[in-house]
Design goal:
3 domains; alpha+beta; 10 helices; elongated; Alpha-Beta Plaits; Serine Threonine Protein Phosphatase 5, Tetratricopeptide repeat; five-stranded antiparallel sheet; five-stranded mixed beta barrel
């Protein structure tokens, strides 16, 4: 029900006051009044929808889940409510509800209490979108969960293979070789991985040598990123429209004939073994391995 009972003008007036408090940024009183409104008009979806949106913005998933359930009970035609319910249910591991919610938005998941762990492809993912945005590659495993597949900068607080909660709908586009790729925003870190981030300087002017190291890492099941690409082409002072934030404490190290690369491993000896092989193959040298995260 999208409108309060026809004889309940007080409920409508109270909701206007809720909206006014919210507009002023007084979330405390907006929520307090909205809870009173929900008790006054328990068959009206609007106060429950407002409360679910508010708690979602604060990443408080239990109240988001509970209020969204009440909202869709009285208004099952609002796609935004189903999306919010799907996100909250996924964050809480309420997989039966999550599957049901996503199916209302066009997915076709079988009813089950099992977690959704699929391979929906690689997406550009914007970490820390409200503070220090950084775009990385991530593998989407269900509508709103992804594992990070490239190596984030240490200032991001994220690591290779971290599990993150992401927005279902993209927010912007990334152009890669004249292709438009939709960017999804991170909502929250769900589970930290046990992978560490290491950096090393490669003393070479050849990108082929960097590719050799990338292939060696792939064969050894280690993560790899060429951070020099960011240094050379995406410096914020040169390209103001680029959304990514770059950690100048790391990227200030490089010179023209030096590549700064990142490697992800569970133990430093795995990194050192791959680098030893790389030196034999390329006849090049590298700096010491630095643990960053």
């Amino acid at each position: 029900m999208n409108r309060p009972p026809s004889n309940n003008d007080a409920a409508e007036q109270l909701y206007r006051l809720v909206v006014e408090y919210d507009r002023r940024g007084d979330v405390y009183n907006a929520v307090k009044l909205c809870k009173r409104l929900a008790r006054m008009a328990p068959d009206w979806s609007v106060p429950f929808a407002f409360l679910s949106r508010t708690y979602r913005s604060r990443l408080e998933w239990k109240p988001t889940f509970q209020y969204c359930l009440r909202a869709v009970e009285h208004n099952p035609f609002d796609e935004n409510l189903w999306e919010t319910l799907g996100i909250a249910a996924t964050a809480l591991g309420e997989w039966e509800t999550a599957r049901y919610a996503w199916n209302q938005l066009g997915f076709h998941f079988k009813p089950s209490a099992e977690a959704l762990h699929l391979d929906l492809g690689i997406i550009p993912l914007r970490l820390n979108p409200a503070t220090q945005p950084e775009v990385v590659a991530a593998r989407r495993i269900n509508p709103v969960q992804a594992t990070i597949e490239s190596i984030p900068q240490p200032s991001s607080g994220r690591c290779y293979k971290d599990l993150v909660l992401v927005e279902n709908k993209p927010n912007g586009q990334l152009y890669q070789q004249s292709k438009k790729l939709p960017i999804h925003d991170e909502l929250q870190l769900l589970k930290s991985s046990n992978w560490h981030t290491f950096s090393v300087l490669l003393y070479t002017d050849s990108s082929a040598d960097v590719d050799t190291l990338a292939n060696l890492c792939l064969s050894a099941n280690l993560g790899f990123d060429n951070w020099s690409n960011a240094t050379r082409f995406f410096q914020p002072n040169l390209h103001r429209n680029v959304a990514e934030y770059f950690d100048q404490a790391i990227f200030g190290k490089t010179e023209r004939e030096v590549f700064l690369v990142a490697m992800a491993a569970k133990q430093v000896k795995e990194v050192e073994k791959v680098l030893a092989t790389w030196r034999v193959i390329t006849l090049r040298e590298c700096g010491g391995v630095e643990l960053l995260h």
